[in-house]
Design a protein that fits this description.
This protein has helices at 34-49, 54-61, 133-143, 156-174, 179-182, 232-246, 261-266; strands spanning 13-18, 64-74, 83-93, 97-106, 109-121, 149-154, 191-197, 202-212, 215-223, 251-257, 270-271, 276-278, 281-289. The protein is of the alpha+beta class. It folds into 2 domains: 3-143, Hotdog Thioesterase (Thiol Ester Dehydrase, Chain A, Roll); 149-289, Gcn5-related N-acetyltransferase (GNAT) (Aminopeptidase). Strands 6, 7, 8, 9, 10, 11, 12 and 13 form an 8-stranded mixed beta sheet that branches. The protein has a 5-stranded antiparallel beta sheet with strand order 1-3-4-5-2. It is globular.
């Protein structure tokens, strides 16, 4: 690997990690084998950054990626409680293989570099297959800075089937909210937002209602579990806020689940009143004034 091409700024994606006690050896530095785990963790994050839930994506494409070769080069050592960033990028794609390059950074210092060669193959026989063209284009586009999501705004008759699948998985199956509480007549008149990745898979949704004259209410915000923290929820929220602003709303409000309050705070929302319970889950009303 060319060391001149492995600075932190060379990576669009980097996974933040903190060294755990169990990863340090008798020399009081991270044991060398753990860096492969760091790189593997970064690979998973790299897929997430492209809004690609790995297992469903591989199932849809009919193949899988298998590691063929891993190499590491050590320049420095990480120690207990160090805060690291593990950069990961696709450097090259062949007919049936791809080369991922990674680097571990502590601040501006590069500690370890690595190369991972993956082969795309039949998941049952492990015989090599050509890397699907849409996946090849997506990888290269991501590294070139292309957006990873397409957010559509529209009505239930067009976006409903995909939005319903996400909401069923998140609210009914995962959070055990009774189906009769999840579905209501408001879907028919609401403005809906649906985020799809570059392979066309819907990964996040939300809706916008009229709460009062000049006040919109955002709700039913749901993100596929494996992509939470990837930016998909923020993209849907921004689209709904833009729709509220476009129709002339002066404010938007929402009922945030307690676990999501921090997310909405980062998006500029402020708490309103005390916490309360809704559908058996703690909530907090929050609001955002629109300029």
């Amino acid at each position: 690997m060319n060391p001149n091409m492995t600075q932190r700024q060379d990576f669009r994606f980097a996974e933040p990690l903190r060294v755990r006690w169990a990863e340090v050896d008798l020399q009081r530095i991270v044991f060398n084998g753990h860096y492969l785990m760091y790189f593997d963790t970064a690979v998973a994050g790299w897929w997430r950054a492209m809004a690609l839930p790995y297992e469903p994506t591989m199932h849809d494409l009919g193949g899988d990626f298998f590691v063929r070769k891993s190499t590491l080069e050590f320049e420095g050592s990480a120690r207990y409680d160090d805060q690291l960033e593990v950069g990961m990028r696709c450097a090259r794609i062949g007919n049936s293989s791809m080369l991922l390059q990674g680097a571990v950074f502590r601040g501006g210092q590069r500690l370890v570099t690595g190369e991972l060669v993956y082969v795309y193959a039949d998941s049952a026989t492990q015989r090599p297959l050509p890397v699907p063209a849409p996946l090849r284009e997506l990888f290269l586009g991501f590294e070139a800075g292309a957006p990873v999501l397409d957010v559509q705004v529209g009505h239930w008759d067009r976006l409903g089937p995909q939005a319903q699948a996400i909401r069923t998985a998140v609210f009914v199956q995962e959070q055990k909210i009774p189906a009769e509480l999840e579905w209501d007549a408001a879907d028919a008149t609401a403005v809906h937002a649906l985020a799809c990745n570059r392979l066309g898979r819907a990964v996040a949704t939300g809706r916008l209602l009229v709460h009062a004259p000049g006040v919109g209410k955002i709700g039913r915000m749901a993100v596929t579990s494996t992509l939470r923290g990837s930016g998909a929820g923020a993209a849907v929220l921004k689209a709904l806020i833009a729709a509220a602003r476009e129709r002339g709303d002066r404010e938007v409000m929402l009922h945030a689940q307690a676990s999501a309050v921090g997310f909405y705070l980062r998006q500029g929302f402020a708490p309103v009143g005390p916490a309360f319970e809704e559908a058996g889950i703690p909530h907090q009303e929050m609001a955002l004034t629109l300029a």
